[in-house]
Amino acid sequence: MSAFIEAASPHTMNTYGRLPIALSHGQGCRVWDINGKSYLDALAGIAVNTLGHNHPELVPALQDQLGKMIHSCNYFHVPNAEVLAAKLVELSGMTNVFFCCTGLEANEAAIKLARKFGHDKGIDKPEIVVYEKAFHGRSIATLSATANEKLKTGFGPMLEGFVRVPVNDIEALKKATQGNPNVVAVFMETIQGEGGVNPMRVEYLKQVRALCDQNDWLMMIDEVQCGMGRTGKWFAHQWAGIVPDVMPLAKGLGSGVPIGAVVAGPKAAHIFQPGNHGTTFGGNPLAMRAGVETIRIMEKDGLMANAAKVGDHLRGALEKALAGVQGVKEIRGQGLMLGVELDRPCGAVWSRAAEAGLLLSVTADSVIRLVPPLIMTEAEADEVVSILAPLIKTFLAEKS
Ligand SMILES: *Cc1c(COP(=O)(O)O)cnc(C)c1O
């Protein structure tokens, strides 16, 4: 008998537009709902389940940790926090890490770092450059840094201290900041996720790095979604050969266990002093074990190389299947972070794909976003395309 899923939850707040599906369990890139229907997972819990579901090495490690200690609190050292921090330092070329629990919390810490960086230099009203189409989270500070006006409606007043510029336009950035002594940082996503899978160009990243150096600004790169191997480098900005001063991480870092981190380079690593910042759950033993094991398994199994290889394959297969289709504007992204932009809003593709047994998401109204687990195989990528391409064609044929 099928379990009935109510359209509106009676007791949880009505914050999400949900599909009438409840997922029960998963294996690799495959998940099942409570009625036994199976789905191919090209969403990974929104770029979170790096290692897919029920990973044969991650699960026993977490079970072991659960039996030892889940949470201890920051009055005490957490040995795996040092192990994970050392690893993130090694992979990023930066120097110190602050652990928290979510993406917005990592970004909130980055904003506080930038403001204190300014205050320490005698700037009373520090300003941070942010971008059109940016998404940094739902707290008041990170929402203020976010571009999408729809998300902000009803929650004003927003925080002051942000200057907004278009992506990939160095002249616009120079013009917007010219003669402004209050600018302390530039804050960007290497590939905007919620904004519609919009990559910053390599050349632009280099230009911003140079401009930040010239002006003694912090270059802060939100790698919450595009980081942790998804694009085929540990961090997406590494394709430009640059190193930021501040880098918030979260989503894929713990392969499903809530975790966030702010990685800082020498310019930002010592801004926070005891008492300046903190969080109860941040860096707890369960989350740290998840982070350590996720990275260990990624390295051992070559999952970054897999993300690059399968990502290229997926993109190639999508390009081939959608070649010449009227209404497909662009296929973009890198590695296993891909977007297919249509010429019209396509929210319906989300639910129709789920009906057809494929989990994905639609972002920025008209961009179909694929962010599968990094363990995806080429055969599974082909399966994604075999479900998705006909669905897109049907959708576009109907509405035009
Ligand atoms: C998801 C996301 C966030 C917010 O992360 P939460 O864990 O939902 O708070 C911030 N920045 C980027 C780029 C994201 O994709």
What is the structural class? alpha/beta
The fold-level CATH name of the largest domain is Aspartate Aminotransferase, domain 2
Low confidence ranges = none
Helix and strand succession?
EEEHHHEHEHHEHEEEHEEEHHEEHEEEH
Distance between the termini: 39 Å
Catalytic activity: N(2)-acetyl-L-ornithine + 2-oxoglutarate = N-acetyl-L-glutamate 5-semialdehyde + L-glutamate
Subcellular location: Cytoplasm
InterPro entries: AcOrn/SuccOrn_fam, Aminotrans_3, Aminotrans_3_PPA_site, Class-III_PLP-dep_AT, PyrdxlP-dep_Trfase, PyrdxlP-dep_Trfase_major, PyrdxlP-dep_Trfase_small
Binding site for N(2)-acetyl-L-ornithine: 138, 279
How are the elements arranged and paired?
Blueprint (H helix, E strand, L loop, with lengths): L22 E5 L2 E4 L4 E4 L2 H4 L10 H11 L10 H14 L3 E5 L2 H18 L6 E5 L8 H6 L3 H4 L9 E4 L4 H8 L5 E7 L1 E2 L5 E2 L2 H14 L2 E5 L23 E4 L10 E5 L20 H16 L2 H20 L5 E7 L2 E6 L4 H9 L2 E2 L1 E3 L3 E4 L7 H22 L1
Parallel strand pairs: 3-15, 5-6, 5-7, 7-10
Antiparallel strand pairs: 1-2, 2-3, 4-12, 8-9, 11-12, 13-14, 14-17, 16-17
The site of pyridoxal-5'-phosphate (PLP) has 15 residues, from α4.
